[in-house]
Amino acid sequence: MTEKTVAAAIVTYNRLALLKESLAAILAQTNYLSHVIVVNNLSTDGTKEYLDSLNDDRIVVYHATENLGGAGGFNQAVRLFGEQLQDDFVWLMDDDTMPEPDALSHLVEFVVAHPQAGFVNSQVRWGDVTGNPSWMNVTAPRAFTWQRYLTNTQEPAVEVVNATFVSVMFSREMVAMVGLPQKEYFIWGDDMEYTNRIADINRGYMVINSIAVHKSKENTKPGDIVAEKDDSRLWRYNYEYRNRVLTARRISKKEMVKTLTVAITRDLRKTLLKKGVAFRAKKLGVIVRGLWRGLFFNPSVEYANGLRQAKSRSLCDAEMDLLD
């Protein structure tokens, strides 16, 4: 069998020190790495000059002429993978992701042994390899599959619903079937929506022995507007709620209703009634506007030039047929 090749991809914005550390960790992978795509989202901290000074044929740099957001950056990274490279897999991560030296080997070797996997992702720790789980990157196990992991500790991976773009890998064939990440999300939720698309064709797995460290500033839960203390971050939640609704709509009407119900009965209610909530009025406006915009937000899915094929039958449709 010909050895598989992988293009890693990093999206970066004004975090040069972390980018250098992440790039070094990726280039130190023991097997399979062929290229590293770096999308620079118009950084102003010397990132451009640093990247332009590198002399490594494996590194492919894209300097954006505007800040594309994380979603736009990953859209561009997967496009470059599809249009300019011929590697078998693309492996996505933020600029504060530090994979262990064998992280990629474990991902590839699992996929080779389990070709039915649509995507694979690493177990993500926060701060360092011995730290707590990175809560924003914890992936939910798929219902009716988790029990087998309680009785069989030798399982190499856990079947998961979706994954974040912090050490997640999928194939060229999958990109051809599902298209590119949704750049219009700009920030937050694009990874969940994209891996949902993949998992509707072939299920995703968290590979237990593949470890990556996420060096985010805080180990917070994703999208927790009630606990948010930083006024300068509230604009992000406009995208969070809008994107959350579209992601649910693309799954089913039932999922959309569930998402709206949870946002109203939990987030809106807590923001309104809980004592000591910072920026209460502004947060209430963000939640309402975001949910409303999500009902009408419907950007089309893009494909890389020359890389498009009909997807196989939806697993969700197949499951519904079994229930009929």
Automatic annotation (TrEMBL):
Q: Does the keyword Cell membrane apply?
A: no
According to UniProt, this protein's pathway is:
Cell wall biogenesis; cell wall polysaccharide biosynthesis
Sorted alphabetically, the keyword list is: Glycosyltransferase, Transferase
The source's domain of life comes to Bacteria
Q: Where is the Glycosyltransferase 2-like domain?
A: 10-172
Instruction: Write out the similarity annotation.
Output: Belongs to the glycosyltransferase 2 family.
- Please give the name of this protein: Glycosyltransferase family 2 protein
Organism of origin: Leuconostoc aquikimchii
